[in-house]
Each structure stands twice: as C-alpha cells, then as structure tokens.
Amino acid sequence: MGGHSPFDRSFAFARRPAAAPLFALFVFPGPVCAANAAPDAAASAEAVAFAGTESAGTERAMSPPSYGPPGETPGIPSEAELEASGAVVGEILIDNQNIFNLEDPKDDLKLFRLADHLHGRTHKSIIRDQLLFRSGERYSRRLIGESERILRADSYFYDAWIRPVRYHDGKVDLRVTTRDVWTLNPGFNFGRSGGTNSTGVQLQELNLLGTGAGVKVAHTKNIDRTESQLEVSDMHAFGTWTAVDVNYANLSDGRMHDLTLNHPFYALDTRWAAGLAGRNDQQTDHLYDRGQIIDQFQDRHQAVQVYGGWSHGLQNGWVRRWSSGVTYDEHVFAPVSTWTGVTAIPEDRRFLYPWLQFDLVQDDYLKLWNHDQIARTEDFYLGTTASVRVGWADAALGSSRSALMVQSSAGRGLRSGSSTLLLAGTLTGRLENGEPRNALLSGSVRYYVEQNEHWLFFTTLEGTKGWRLDLENQILLGGDNGLRGYPLRYQDGTARALWTLEQRYFTDWYPFRLFRVGAAVFFDSGRTWGSAPLAAPSLGLLKDAGFGLRFGNARSGLGNVVHVDLAFPFNGDNSIQRAQFLVQTEQHF
C-alpha cells in the first residue's frame, strides 16, 4: 500500500500475460486505483459474536459497516477526540473469523460447517504482523485506515476492519476483525473469449495452513501454449514484509523459471526497500492480426534485477522515495522450424544498465462500495502519484547498443458528490541515437456515477501510441482487451483507442450464500491506426454491444468477478461471428 515498489516496473514490456504470472508483478500497475482486489464486508451489517478474540472481553460484539464513518461504541470518544487527547493504543484484540458465520442460522448448514472445519483459519500472528501500530503507541486513525487497506489487499481475506471497543485511563483497546475466504482451489477451469476456449486443471492453496503462504500446481491450455506449472509464494515470509515467489513451468514451446525476493515500500511511512528478481524463460512468440497468427519465432529471455530504495517517509501528506538499481535484460530470437508462413525475426538485444528512480505519492484514499466489485469494500486511490526512472545502457559495458532507458507514470483521482474520476498514464521506452525506440505512451480515464445503491454508470476511454516498437511487442485490439464482440487479437496497429459505456446493476441476490450477483449492459467502440509490420490495413472504427451477468466470489479468494457475456459486433470482416459468448474471470466488474 501507499505507492509502488520499483519491482512493479522492472522490465519495459508485458507482452505475455498468459505465460508470465510472476513478472506480471513487474509491469506498470494502474497507478490510480489502489485496491480493487479488496475483500468485501457485505455481511458486516449482520450481528456477529466475536468468540475468537485473543483476549476475552465483556463488551457487546458489534459488526459496523466496513466503509464510511466508523461504528461507534458507547462511551468511546470519536477518532478525532482520541487523537487530540493523546490516547495510546491499549490491547489489540485479533478476531480472525472463519469463512462462514455459524452464529447466523442462514450460514449454519452442514456443508458450511464442513468448509469451516476443513479450512485452516489465518493465524492471528499473520494478522498482527501486518498492523502498522503496536500497543503503547499513540492512537492514529491514519495508521488504522492504512492497516485496514493492507489486510484487505490480502487475497485470503473477505474483509478487514479495525474498531475501538474500550476506552479507559487514556488507553483505547482495538479490535481487528478479519474474515477468511475459501482458498483451496482443486478442479477444472474454463474460460472463453473471442471465440477461443482456455482450459485447465489445478490444485492451488492461497493460504497454506493459515500461514498466508501459497502453493500452486497447474496444467493449463490456452490459445498460445500448454503449460505445467509449480509456484510457491509468501508475501510475508518469516513473519516479515519480505515477499518470496518461485515459479517453475514447463511449456509446450519452452520453459519458464522465475524468482523474486522483495522487501517493498509496504506502507506510506516505510523508510527503505530492497529486492532481487531473476528470470530465465524460453517460448514461442506469436504475432497476430485479424485473430490469426501471422508470424512465429522463438524467444529466449534472461533477466536479473537488484535494487534498493530509501525514503524519509510520510511528510505533510506526501511521500518521496528514491530507488537505485541495476538491470540485465537479454532477448535472443530464433526461427521456429514448424512455422511455414512469413517469418520476420526481431533483432537480438541485450541491455545492462544502472538506473535511478523517483516516486511521489500523496496520502489520499477513499472507501467505496459497488463500483468495480460486488458488495465489497473498495479502496480507491484519489491522490496524485508520479514516478520517473532513468537508466543508461552503454555498449562499452556489455549492452548490444547504447540507449537511455526511461519508464514513467502518473495518476490522479477526483471525487465530486456521487462521481469519481480516475486518470492514469505511462510512458516507457528507450532513446537510441536521439530517436525513440520501443516507446509506448498509454493513458486512461475512468469515470463512475453512483445513481443509487444498486445502479452505477461507468465509462472509460483508453489510448495507446507506440514508436518503433520491437517486433515482438504489438498494440492489439480485440476480445481479450475490451472489444468484447470480436475475436482475440483482432486488429494490430501502432496506436489504438477504446471507449466503453457500461450500465451496471448490483443485485441483492445471494445464491447459496456463495455468490453476489450483478448485471451489465455495455457498448464498446475502438480502432487501431498505423501500419504495423505484417498487419493488414485497419478496418476502421469497430463497435459492439451486449449484456451479461457478473458473479462476485463472496466466499472464495480464487477470483474476484466471473463475467458471463453475450456480445454482438456491429461491423468487421466476413469472418466475424454474429454473437460472441464470453466466460472470463476478471479483477473488476
């Protein structure tokens, strides 16, 4: 929370999301909306008996709403009064609730009791280690709010909230309440978009024995390749803020070996960060146009990065961070013997460079409800954020050619009445002999209007422009990136724009007390520009419309929102089906 680690943007391009789960951490995240993986507290309006606290208390258990004004307990001053009086934190009571609340007759079912029995509840020590305050320290509502956001960002929690429960002798006792979700995923996965299916079988545990560690064994098949994967991760290894992730995969067209060891800027007031990451993979890259493969080549990618960062922490509502590191990034390309079409091979490249990075983060967060999630607490980042990284790769020091390496991002959020506006932009690339190479400028505008507690209007405009892109990096538009009525990777160009209008409806339907249900009617419009290598001319402005259902996982941490859509294209070539049926698991509504 509170900004981005340099590891969020280690290597310049993310071109293979299906085969690169680890290094997806290294790509520019959306720098404005900070926590849309946040768990939900839809059930938090119900009375809950806090039987699992570390210290027995006689106060009446309450379950206040997880956003908006904190729930008040009689006899306890307000947050502002507690801070003004110099109150200190007394007892910290950890209430780590299980998946189902068996005190509620609607949850007290045989199947749900079995699930609670089989599930390893998150250890209280794991929760306590993530808090930014300790007993005996001054009460700070800022640290309490930030601790809530940190806990909500953990995929194994449905929600988290912290409330005062007792005030005495200048001390305020706090209750930290979390509710687990089901984190074991054995079974079969299916997805469909752009007329193409993806399937898989896997055994995944996101919260092994309640320790917060994860392990995944999977075999998947998608449009690009078949993959057998083993991944082990722990975002709080050894009871610290150190994240460890090891990912090993055998691919039908190669291999993938990834390792990350990272101590990030985990909070606004964190003073240092450091990390190491490495990658060694080999696979076949595909270039697409009109939904078809137009080129193939083998790509062997090796990369290592080490960095350190320092900061004076939060000062007057702002955080300034400096980071420095060294990156080695090499791609070696070769033809694929089984490919019989046109073959264009990218130029091999190797860059070894030191870099310096500056990050600016404003402390400004807002809790919302029913925006990008269904009945979940959502932490939106509304502050101003900016990041600039500059490095120099010199041919005399081992790089294949000299280049100035640049990565930057900026974002801003605005809130007025019932409307929220989020702005974000990134610029990445390199400068060789005074000319931009592999440069990519992207920007987005996201706008939400809350009509009432069930209805929300949403629209977004996204644009991307590239300059002298490396051949393997394409600017694509199709069913897998927002143009839902068209095949995957349908249009290729040197620039693209996409505009989406969506009317969202959030129901109170709670089938089997497992899923929260929503619905949407949408319109998409987009096009590409420019003459990309090997691509056919652009078909101009493409449009589609459709409708669908959304299923939010209220009891599982294995996927945020399942989309089931039917989309109808308005134009395109004769190969386009009249309707596209899509089933996808997404981070957002």
Biggest sheet architecture? 20 strands, antiparallel
Question: What structural class should be given to the helix and strand makeup?
Answer: mainly beta
CATH level-four homologous superfamily name of the largest domain: membrane protein fhac: a member of the omp85/tpsb transporter family
Radius of gyration: 25 Å
Total DSSP E strands? 27
Total domains, how many?
Answer: 2
Any idea of the CATH topology of the largest domain?
Porin
Shape: globular
Low-confidence stretches: 1-6, 8-71
Quote the average pLDDT. 86
Helix content percent band = under 10%
CATH class assignment of the largest domain = Mainly Beta
CATH architecture of the largest domain: Beta Barrel
- Number of separate helices: 4
Strand content: over 45%
Distance between the termini: 22 Å
